[in-house]
Specification:
With about 100 residues, the chain is α+β, with helices and mostly antiparallel strands. It is about 25% helix and about 30% strand.
């Protein structure tokens, strides 16, 4: 599972942030996903989104996904919290990107 982010700045790629049902290591930057947000997104509770690392995938090379259909979505308030956390991690140079090919 992952959160898929598309940006106007890089329209040909998606940025994937992993979601896990295992409590992340305390050294990792992550957010707990509330029970209500899990329900909205079609996820089992509990789970976390890991925000210190993402995969970048060019859309024309995204062949290994079983389906691109969303399972659900997060609320605008939670998405804003995710975006702010990622923005702060990038500013503090605590964000790692991995380009998948």
């Amino acid at each position: 599972m992952c959160v898929v982010v598309r940006t106007a700045a890089v329209p040909g790629a998606v940025f994937l942030f992993p979601i896990t049902s295992q409590l992340p290591d305390p050294t990792r930057l992550s957010l707990a996903i509330s029970q209500m947000e899990c329900r909205r997104a079609g996820l089992d509770f509990p789970c976390w989104i890991v925000l210190d690392e993402y995969n970048r995938v060019e859309l024309d090379k995204a062949f290994d996904f079983e389906s691109a259909a969303p399972l659900g979505s997060f609320s605008p308030a939670f998405l804003k919290k995710i975006a702010l956390t990622v923005k702060n991690a990038a500013a503090a140079r605590k964000l790692t990107g991995i380009t998948r090919s």
